[in-house]
Each structure stands twice: as structure tokens, then as C-alpha cells.
Amino acid sequence: MKTKRWIDEGNRTIYEASFFHDETLSALDIFHREGHEIWAIEVKSSTSVKDYHLVDASLQYWVMTNAGYPPDKFFLMHIDNSYIRRGEIDSKQLFTLTDITTEVKSKFDWVGENLHRLKSIQKDREPLIEIGNHCLSPFECDYIHHCWKHIPQENSVFELTNARGKSWKLYEENILHLADIPEDFPLTKKQKIQVDGVKYNQSNIEIESIREFLSSWKFPLYFFDFETIFPAIPILQNTSPFQQIPFQYSLHVINEPNGILEHKEFLAEPSHFGSHSEIDPRLKLLEQMRIDLGDSGSIVAYNASFEKNVLKDLSIAYPQYSEWINSAISRFVDLYEVFRNGWFYAPKMGNSASIKSVLPALAPEFSYNDLEISNGGDASNTFIAMMEGSLNGKVDSKRKDLLKYCERDTLGMVIIWQKLQEFLER
């Protein structure tokens, strides 16, 4: 009722304007009058127009039109990831309008037909639809736990690594568990290693490949890990939407074989990320990192491409440090390679080579369970809450939790490296 009143009163822009027709409610992000035209605008946090955006917008166009307010133009407003913040946020540069009027009009009849079909489903029995890729795209269905209840909870064929359609081929042949895959079914080397692990509890250890890889590392060894935030709206100068902004790192150092393990760390002050701060938190991190990492020795990361990309962004932002940053990037070695390449595989790893899967397989005594913060997502969200002043808890306590978590990650890398060394010495 308010939307109708505001439209009748001639309001130029209405946010969350609501329209209703034939038992269907639609809330539009922005209803806008531009001259004599009505513009419908949907706002998305993505950086491009997705197919499912067009479906959503087509429904809104259908409801608005049938409710008596057909928009002359329909736009999707999304983030332009080429935008770089310089000074105050320029919303006209940060967001871009894409005209999708033709696309939503073309789906008008399709929307009506599908709404009729969906309503009939509500009044009838559960539809008999076989599971398929549609259960997972564009997002996982809320009812997957119901429709997939006949699929094994562990080691199903849908856990086959890099399956590329093989999982569905096996399912069509009524093969649901990895252990039931026939010996003559075509598998890649990594897939066969995984399946044999399930069938026979068999590990795969390629000693010479591991030895050759680890022997190329140069002491001192620096086991390194970043924690980052990636806000849609750039919070720092000279940064872009969704850019990975480092706020913390942990570093374990071993100077020589059988040397003493040292730990170093950095955690930025949340207040330094404020728009009125005179301190650049990324520069402060970079300066400390330059001291801690020195100029020689291998820098060990797990999935090193992430750390390298963060450093490349820092090199662009601070060209005065680019020579050192590029040198540091060249020193990286990636512990992930051992497991990504299948040189080491244990059944407990399942279909994953992530550090959180490898550690229980190599060092079951190692755990994150005693930590208040136990994953990178929670670390990022905690720091953002500290920045925004919305933290639920004491800042000093949460700082300690962040430091403990990041330290545990690099200690985990050290443990993995040590366990691999033990295999080489047998």
C-alpha cells in the first residue's frame, strides 16, 4: 500500500518498492522515475550479470507489469571491479548499470507459465524428479538432504576427485560408493589412488618425487600465511572491490636443518582501516614483513598462489618496494604441490588436498578444535567486526584468538614438512 501511495504522490525514487499480482509478491531494490520513464533497478554485489539475475529480474518485470506499473527500462546495477578508490567513494564509478530490458521482456511468457506450474506443485504431490546437476546450480538446493538421502554420506561417487562427469556416469549405472567402482572403470592416476585408498585402505607415497621437491628448498625456511579481508566496497585508498587486503600474517622460521623453531607475527590495528586514519595498515604490514622475511631462504606457503597474488597487489600499491616484493615472490615454494600432485595420499584425506584434510591424515594429534577461531572465514569476519565496532566480545580477547589461529596455520605447515621428512629418512 505504501508503494502505491508513494508512486501516486510522484516520488521519484522508492527503495524496496513492493508489487503484488496473482499471489506473487516482488520487492524491487529501486523504483526510479527518469523523466517520463519508469526505471526498475536491481542491485547485486557481483561484478557482472549472471543468468540467475535475469531470472529474478524477469519475475519482477512480470509482477510489475501485471500490477499496472510496467517499467520502461530494467537495469541491473552491479559492482565495477575495475574501480579504484581514490579519495571518497564515488558511487557512480563503483557501480555500473547494465540494461537488461530486452532480456526480461523476452521471458515474460516463460515466467507466467512457470509460476502456474510451481503453484500447481504446491497443491499436488512431491514431483518425481531425478537428482542431477540442477540440484547444485546455480546454488545448492535447500532440499538436497531429502532428495539425496540415498547417496552414501561418506565416500560416495560424487566425492571422486576431478570427476569431470564420471560421478554421474557411475550413478547412472547404479554405482553409488567409491568402493564399488569396477576395476576396469577408466580412472586417472589420482582418481585410482583415491579409490584404492577407500577399497584397500591404501596410501600412496612417492618418496623420490617428495625428496626431489623438498631438497630444492633453501634454508632459512619461512613458513608463511596471510589472513585477509575482501570488502565489496573498498575501504582503503588505491584498492578495488573484493581485493584481498592483508591484515595479518604468521611466520614460523627454521634457520638450519634441525634448527630451533621461531615464531613471528603481525596483526594490524582495526582503527588503521578507518577513513580518517593517518596510518596505512598495508604499508605497516609490508615494512614489518620485509624485516621478518629477510632477503634469502625459501618462503613456504600452502597454495602459494594466494600469497603471491596478495604480494603482487602490494607491489603495485607500493612501487618503492616492488624490487624486494618481486624477489620475495620468487622465493616461494608451495607445500600444496606434494598433495595436489598425488605424491602423498592417505585415505583420510578423502578427495581434498587442503591443509585441513592433510593434517588429520599426517598428524591426527594436531587440531584446531581448542581455538575460538578455527577457519579463515571466521578470522576475516572477526577483524571486520573489530573495524566496524560491531564485535561481540572483548577486542583484546579476539586479537589473541586471531593470533592463535594464524599461528596454528603456519605451525601446521611445519608439522606437515616434518612428517614428510620422517618418511624420507625411513
Give the strand content: 15-25%
Strand order of the largest sheet: 1-2-3-4-5
Number of helices: 16
Helix and strand sequence: HEEEHEHEHHHHHEHEEEHEHHEHEHHH
Distance between termini? 77 Å
Overall pLDDT = 94
Low-confidence stretches: none
Largest sheet: 5 strands, mixed
For the record, the CATH architecture of the largest domain stands as: 2-Layer Sandwich
Q: What is the CATH top level name of the largest domain?
A: Alpha Beta
- Shape call: flat
Integer count of domains:
3
Q: Classify the fold: give the CATH topology of the largest domain.
A: Nucleotidyltransferase, domain 5
The beta-strand count equals 12
- Using only CA atoms, what is the Rg? 27 Å
* Secondary structural class: alpha/beta
Fourth-level CATH superfamily of the largest domain: Ribonuclease H-like superfamily/Ribonuclease H
**Helix content, binned percent:** 40-55%
Can you lay out the helices and strands and say which pair or pack?
Layout: H1 2-8, E1 13-21, E2 24-34, E3 37-43, H2 51-66, E4 73-79, H3 91-94, E5 95-99, H4 101-106, H5 108-122, H6 144-147, H7 166-172, H8 189-200, E6 204-205, H9 207-215, E7 221-229, E8 245-254, E9 261-267, H10 281-293, E10 298-301, H11 304-317, H12 322-330, E11 332-334, H13 336-340, E12 344-345, H14 355-362, H15 376-388, H16 395-425
Parallel strand pairs: 3-4, 7-10, 10-11
Antiparallel strand pairs: 1-2, 2-3, 4-5, 6-12, 7-8, 8-9
